[in-house]
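Support request, please re-run this one:
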Amino acid sequence: MTRKERTIRIVVNGALLAVIVALGIAVYQSGSEGRKQKELAQQKETQWEEEQAKLSEEEEEPMVDADTSQVEAEMSEDAQMDSSSEELAQEDSETAEWETAEAKTQQESVEMEQEPAAAAIPVVDFTEDTLMIWPLSGDVLLDYSMDQTIYHPTLDVYKYSPGIVISAAEGSEVLAAANGMVESVREDAETGTTVTLDMGNGYRASYGQLENVLVQEGQTVGQSTILGYVAQPTKYYSVEGTNLYFAMSKDGTPIDPITYLP
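Re-run finished. Output below.
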């Protein structure tokens, strides 16, 4: 091969090499540019997604805040209503308690005014120095007499008299002559319905010829308490007319009631 041919080949090979290198560079640059564009597109897409997400969050946040504010406002109103209801309930309760206490006080005052004697139980302690009251007003038809006999008009006989007989209109009130405990309420053939009071210390008083008795056995009564009312006399005192039979005893022995009457 001649020198000229060798030179031409070298030039051709160099040109081919340059073309190959240029093509490689072009291909590389093209691939690199594609990757850059692809990365840029991905970055833009990512940025767009982030912006959309941010916009969505910004749109949702006011709604959440508004809903929260509304809920908090409603809860505040409910709390205020509950507080007001509790205060009203407490005021109503305090008012009701005050009214109840006031009504109870007024009732107790009325009861004390209406029943002043009910607050204290009468003292049953009769002695020789005790002064009684007359159980009713009237003339003494038959006196007490245990020393000698006296005349009894209805029976038309002379006999002892352990008590006194006091004239009275039918229906007259019969009062307790002194404090005492009702020992018995009994029916007696001679004195009819008879109430006996235990006055203490062995002293007793009997009230006969009664009707509509107002006391009962075991009851403690004070002086002037109404025991009952004068009834029609029994057959043993019919001539004497309507009357109260009144007798006293000490340790079972008859004593003169007049001694203790004013």
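Helices lie at 3-114. Residues 155 and 236 are 6 Å apart (CA to CA).
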